[in-house]
């Protein structure tokens, strides 16, 4: 089922903004790794893992985008939901003591990445549910 123009417009706005912000966030986290406080408990990914994860997560986002444009909304929603983790995971920064003391612009891109991750996730859930509703509606109106 072909996605609506409005849905594609929203996806373009949310996803490409998320990708742009994630470039800033992940590049800062990679190149200034020592300036990010590390949590004493729980996961503490290495600089290499941080850098590599951006490429992995973004690949999921790009596949999700292509699937959505191709009308495979349910499959796209899964890939977009996985991509959304790249932003939502930024909450982990605040499990480390001292993160709230970081400079304002670092706080801004981390928080923006979290919010955009939630927005991508929300879009993925909405798209999947809308696709299911459209499919049920089409079956109900198709004569047997």
The tally of structural domains comes to 1
Amino- and carboxy-terminal Cα gap: 20 Å
Helix content: over 70%
User: Helices and strands: which structural class?
Assistant: mainly alpha
Give a nutshell description of this structure.
The protein has 144 residues and is mostly helical.
Q: Can you describe this structure?
A:
With 144 residues, the chain is mainly alpha-helical. The protein has one domain. Helix content is 72%, strand content 0%. It has helices spanning 5-31, 47-69, 73-88, 104-141. Helix 1 (5-31) packs antiparallel against helix 2. The protein is elongated and about 65 Å long. The two termini are 20 Å apart.
Describe the secondary-structure layout.
Blueprint: H1 5-31, H2 47-69, H3 73-88, H4 104-141
Features:
72% helix, mainly alpha, 4 helices, 144 residues, elongated, single chain
């Amino acid at each position: 089922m072909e996605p609506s123009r409005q849905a594609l417009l929203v996806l373009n706005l949310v996803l490409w903004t998320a990708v742009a912000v994630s470039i800033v966030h992940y590049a800062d986290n990679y190149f200034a790794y020592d300036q990010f406080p590390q949590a004493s408990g729980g996961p503490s990914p290495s600089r290499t893992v941080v850098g590599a994860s951006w490429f992995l997560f973004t690949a999921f986002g790009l596949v999700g985008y292509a699937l959505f444009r191709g009308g495979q909304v349910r499959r796209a929603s899964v890939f977009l939901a996985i991509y959304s983790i790249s932003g939502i995971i930024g909450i982990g920064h605040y499990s480390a003591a001292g993160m709230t003391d970081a400079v304002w612009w670092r706080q801004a891109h981390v928080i923006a990445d979290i919010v955009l991750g939630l927005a991508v996730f929300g879009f993925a859930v909405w798209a999947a549910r809308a696709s299911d509703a459209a499919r049920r509606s089409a079956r109900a109106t198709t004569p047997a």
